[in-house]
Structure formats: structure tokens, C-alpha cells
Amino acid sequence: MPKLGMEPIRRAALVKATIDEIGATGTLDITVSKIAKRAGMSSALAHHYFGGKEQIFLAAMRHTLTVYGAEVRGALAMADGPKLRLEAIIRAGFTSSNFRREVIAAWLNFYVLAQSNPQAQRLLTIYQRRLHSNLVFNLRPLVGGHADAVAERIAGLIDGLYLRRGLDPRGEAGVDATAHVLALLHAELRAAS
Amino acid sequence: MPKLGMEPIRRAALVKATIDEIGATGTLDITVSKIAKRAGMSSALAHHYFGGKEQIFLAAMRHTLTVYGAEVRGALAMADGPKLRLEAIIRAGFTSSNFRREVIAAWLNFYVLAQSNPQAQRLLTIYQRRLHSNLVFNLRPLVGGHADAVAERIAGLIDGLYLRRGLDPRGEAGVDATAHVLALLHAELRAAS
DNA sequence: TTTTTTCTTGATTGACGAGTCAATAAAGAA
DNA sequence: TTCTTTATTGACTCGTCAATCAAGAAAAAA
């Protein structure tokens, strides 16, 4: 059975299993064995490919971030002009895929991890910077010198509403959150003109 | 040494120690022994008074929430009229005491806990409802029927900026966050008039 | 075929932690 | 004083888990 080129397959399976396991428990308090079993292999193999629990978490975090980044980029590619692009960025944050239990759990736990793990901290900073600069770039032609402050508010509202909706026990989430952020955007545009 | 009426003293010491320990590690992944040692007693005593780790966490959460609630109430007592009250609520969220490492860590971890623990979930819901209704009550005379939606945006921006500032590696936090939320508030008031 | 490389796991180690319990000590009640 | 209630802990149980390792199995190379 042992074939060549298993490494990338195993790593991907472990990353997915990790996110699923985080989603199932809500915590980072999960065992390598459980992850490995979910991914269909022994825990020894997980250690073999990743070296340790922390590495697995970071890989899962990178993956979550990558997926989100890809969604944003995809939405941007289809939007023309700064206003439509801003709306696309906002919408991308509240896709139903972002409200799957595992994804919410992943984000919340990564926030926690970022407090104590410098690598996690860096990854989160990257996400925040990218969001911020995407917003500023498209706000500049519309609100000029206020771009930075407006971007800060929009980013804050995105994160805050995501947090609130993600934690809301009754699911039913993203639609009105999108509307709220769009309302903020339009108010800012109106105020600046 | 054993005197009577130790229970409330011990409980308070344990709650404080728990929050400090969460702040020191960033995680809920802490041991009852460490908490107890920090509070100057044996772990057995901690179990005696709280029954288990989870109970200790919930007590710590209740305490955090109570302190925050008291701050808001204090700020409200000194504010006259809906507009000043709204500003007081907003300011209360970004006090420097709310940006102490332990407090941030506590909130982040309580978010995580709320995913899997119904009691934590309930406590968080209480906080959210109280904030929301405080906002709505004071917004109603100013923006009428829009109060609900505006409150949602303000609450979202408060939580989101708190999250971002709390996670920001360079401290230096609350001042501009307050300004951002106040800016949103004033924009909403202007738009409604 | 023999050898080497890649893949894989069961078993083990070593450590740690939650919760229990029996026993001690002090204070107040009877 | 004797009894009861409250406070307190050290020692122990039982379980779990991260990480290691030696060894097996299969493909590819020689």
C-alpha cells in the first residue's frame, strides 16, 4: 500500500481533520490521536509529517486564512470599480461558507492562540493588514484622506458582526450582517461627498 | 487558623487567580493546581468550594461580566440625556481597565467557551442583550424606528474594534477605538435627522 | 534479486492533571 | 469538656496524552 508522494495528501487530510475536530469540540483542546483517526491514520504518522501539535494548528490556521483570501480575491476579480469592489470585499466576509461551525470555531480559537503564539499572531496580522489595505486602496478614490479611518471602521464592523453572528445560538446569520456593513459603507461615502 | 466564613473570601481569591492565570497563559488550558497555588491554597480546597474546573471558569466569567456591567452603570449614572448616555456606554467599553492582558484573554476565551458550554453561551447572550437594549433605549428618541439597526451596528463596531485592539501586539489601544465608534454614532444621528 | 528509500504503525515512555478521600485542626455549641 | 461544624491539605487514583522508536511492508532503484 505505501505509495510515493503521500506527504501532501496526508498533510491536507490532517489539516482538514484538524479543522473539523476543532469545529466538533469548539476548542483547541483536542488530541493528535483524534485528529489522526479522523484523517484515517495513526497518530505517529501525524507526528511524522508535522512534528508536533502546534505545527498542525498553525497549518490549519494558514489553510483557513488561505481559503478566505481566495474567496476575497475571487470576488474582487468579478467587481469593477472601487465601490463594487468594496461591496465585494464586504460580502466575501459573510459568505455562508464562513459561517460553518468549523470555520467559526477555527477563527475564534486562532484569536485565542494569537495571544500566546507569535506565529499565530503574525498570521492574524497578515490577515488584518490585507483586509485593511484592500479597503484603503478602494476607498481612496471615494473618500480621499479619510480612507484610513473609514477602513478601520469597516474592518472593525466586519469582525465584530462576524463575532456576534458566529456566536449567536440561532444560526441564521450572514445576510443582515452584510446589509449592516454595506449601510455603514454607504453612509461613509455620503458623508465624504 | 481555620476561621468561619472563609467561603466567600476563598471563592473571590480563586476567581481573581483564575483570571490572572488565564491572562498569564492566554488560554483556558490551565490547571486547577496553578490557580489554587496562585490563590494561596491547595487544589483540593478549590475543588471543595467550586466542585470542578468548569464551575471556576463560569464564576470567573460571571465576575468579568459583572465588573463590566458595573462600569457601564457607573458611567450611565453621570450622563444626562440620550446622546450623552450613548457616548458613556461607548466609552465604557474601551476603558484602559478593559485592555489589561487578563481581561482581554478572559473575553477571548469566554467567546471560545460559549461555543460549547450552554451556561457560558447564556452569560454572553445576557451581555449582548443588555448592551443592545441599553443602546436601543437611548437611540429611540434620537433615531426612532432605526434604533434597532443602529444599535446593532454600534454594538458590532464596539466588539470588533475591541477584538482588533485587544489582539494588536503593539498595545496603545482604546483611545482611537472610542473615537471611531463615536464617529459612527454621530454619523447615524446626522443621517436620521 | 538485493538494496535503499518511503511510508506506516503498535507499543511504550514519561509526564501531567482532575477529582477523591481520609485525616487533621480549629472554632463554636451543648 | 465533649460534640459538631467548617476549613484545610497531602497523598493517591485513574485516566489521558504528546512524543518516540523500533520494526514491518511496499515500491523503486541497482
UniProtKB/TrEMBL annotation, chains A, B:
Pfam families: TetR_C_6 (PF13977), TetR_N (PF00440)
Residue span, HTH tetR-type domain: 8-68
DNA-binding region boundaries: 31-50
Molecular function GO terms recorded: DNA binding; DNA-binding transcription factor activity
Keywords, ordered alphabetically: DNA-binding, Repressor, Transcription, Transcription regulation
Functional pathway: Amine and polyamine biosynthesis; betaine biosynthesis via choline pathway [regulation]
Record-linked InterPro entries: BetI_C, Homeodomain-like_sf, HTH_TetR, Tet_transcr_reg_TetR-rel_C_sf, Tscrpt_rep_BetI
Swiss-Prot/TrEMBL GO biological process terms: glycine betaine biosynthetic process from choline; negative regulation of DNA-templated transcription
PROSITE patterns: HTH_TETR_2
Protein name: HTH-type transcriptional regulator BetI
Role summary: Repressor involved in the biosynthesis of the osmoprotectant glycine betaine. It represses transcription of the choline transporter BetT and the genes of BetAB involved in the synthesis of glycine betaine.
Gene: betI
UniProt keyword Transport present: no
